[in-house]
Design brief:
Layout lengths: L5 H8 L1 H13 L8 H23 L3 H17 L6 H14 L9 H16 L4 H4 L11 H12 L3 H13 L4 H21 L5 H16 L2 H5 L7 E6 L7 H12 L3 E4 L6 H11 L3 E5 L6 H13 L6 E4 L1 H5 L3 H4 L9 H12 L7
Parallel strand pairs: 1-2, 1-3, 3-4
Helix pairs in contact: 2-3, 2-5, 3-4, 4-6, 5-6, 8-9, 8-10, 9-11, 10-11, 10-13
Bound molecules: cobalamin (B12).
């Protein structure tokens, strides 16, 4: 279970004030000369870094904080900001937090814990050139098709990408392979291109929306497949906008003859619980991409358990692929990363069932 640390709650309660103090510390006397847009951006960035730091401490995951510092460093390097910016930021965090030590809510020992996680995070950063590159990826099926699909969408050619997929269906390519070897790697590559400043937010949004559209063209086929008497109910935690991953998982499981009940992004806890009560699924799946949403996944699981719902609960998404011990801390029954591993896991959890056609 994820512990609720009172000292972290204390810092969270004072987050806005701490963020403002960090900005003042970083920009010194220039702070009142800052353009409003620049100031708001600095506030957003600082809040984002702090939320990730506080969550790493709360879930006690050095692994995730290391991944975060690497990611933030890569992002800043590719955005042409000075590579010292992130370390400047965390130095300012330590200066500001020193003034917060009051020996009652926030002690020297807590301060040292923060110092330790930050210094370990920084000691493992690799140069951005190596860490965010896609070079050296092994050959995969549909590799050429993936290249062409990417070319179409980066050239804003949605119908070219759709025609390519329709042709693959006509050529009897397994729909599951489209998820495994086309849509999934394409979305990951899109993230890398955005992070390394090779495409902008609009290009990323366009390509993601186009992939959603192209996936929807497959639904007639996917939903008409025969189904076993099993239901997989899937949701994102509240605040979480990344729903493509769990949507793909649902489509994939429909191809494996499961029924899925997909709730999508940003689901309020009570509505998830109500849907579970009404639908009575065989497996509940909770997806979470942003690290700072992990406590919400844990909280939702606690509420489901308290409601005496004896259904296996899986958690998964980006951070769970980085820290292999994380699922356990959320109180879930398990996790899995790849489509095949997810299918195998739910088959094991529910005893398997042979499709009778
Ligand atoms: C598309 C996208 C978005 C879209 C999402 C649209 C949508 N409809 O889903 C939008 C524009 C909303 C978005 C917003 C943001 N994004 Co975004 N996004 C992406 C991107 C490019 C692709 C996501 C995706 O489709 N992945 C493909 C799927 C298949 O992968 P997946 O989700 O991991 O799912 C797999 C497994 O994890 C698993 N799985 C998933 N869920 C579950 C659940 C269970 C129970 C199980 C068992 C398994 C499982 O199954 C899948 C198959 O293997 C990723 C890049 C990436 N590497 O993922 C960035 C990425 C996740 N985003 C990122 C960021 C920073 C953001 C923003 C903060 C940007 C901003 N400044 O606003 C916001 C945050 C929004 C929020 N509050 O949630 C970063 C996160 C980095 C980090 N360290 O935190 C990434 C990694 C980009 C990058 N490389 O920098 N994003």
């Amino acid at each position: 279970m994820i512990n609720r640390f009172l000292w972290l709650e204390h810092l969270r309660r004072h987050r806005s004030r701490i963020v403002a103090a960090i900005i003042r510390h970083l920009h010194d006397s220039d702070v009142h000369l800052m353009d409003e847009k620049v100031y708001l951006q600095a506030m957003n960035d600082a809040t984002f870094h702090l939320d990730n730091l506080f969550t790493s401490l709360e879930i006690e995951s050095q692994t995730l904080f290391n991944a975060y510092t690497q990611w933030a460093n890569d992002l800043l390097t590719h955005s042409n900001a000075s590579s010292a910016t992130l370390s400047d930021f965390f130095e300012a965090v330590m200066e500001v937090l020193l003034l917060e030590v009051d020996d009652i809510h926030f002690t020297t020992a807590h301060y040292q814990r923060i110092e330790e996680i930050i210094s370990q995070g920084f000691s493992q950063i690799k140069s951005a050139a190596g860490s965010a590159s896609s070079a050296g990826t092994p050959a995969t099926p549909l590799q050429d098709e993936l290249k062409r699909y990417t070319q179409h969408l980066l050239a804003s050619d949605r119908s070219g990408a759709a025609k390519l997929v329709q042709q693959l269906i006509q050529d009897d390519v397994d729909v599951k392979d489209l998820y495994r070897h086309l849509f999934h790697p394409f979305q990951i590559e899109l993230g890398r291109l955005w992070q390394t400043n090779k495409i902008n937010v609009a290009q990323e949004h366009f390509a993601t929306a186009a992939t959603q559209y192209i996936m929807s063209l497959l639904y007639e086929h996917i939903l008409s497949l025969p189904k076993i008497d099993k239901v997989f109910l899937a949701t994102c935690v509240s605040g979480e906008l990344h729903e493509m991953g769990i949507r793909m998982v649902c489509d994939y499981l429909e191809c494996c003859h499961w029924n899925t009940h997909y709730l999508g992004a940003n689901m309020p806890e009570s509505a998830v619980i109500q849907a579970v009560m009404e639908r009575q699924p065989d497996v509940i799946a909770i997806s979470c991409t942003m690290m700072y949403h992990i406590p919400k996944a844990s909280h939702l699981i606690q509420r489901l358990r308290k409601a005496d719902i004896p259904i296996p609960i899986l958690v998964g998404g980006y951070p769970f692929n980085i820290d292999p011990l994380l699922w356990h801390k959320t109180g879930a029954t398990g996790t899995a990363g790849s489509f095949d591993a997810i299918y195998e896991t739910i088959e094991v959890l529910t005893g398997g069932e042979v499709l009778e056609i």
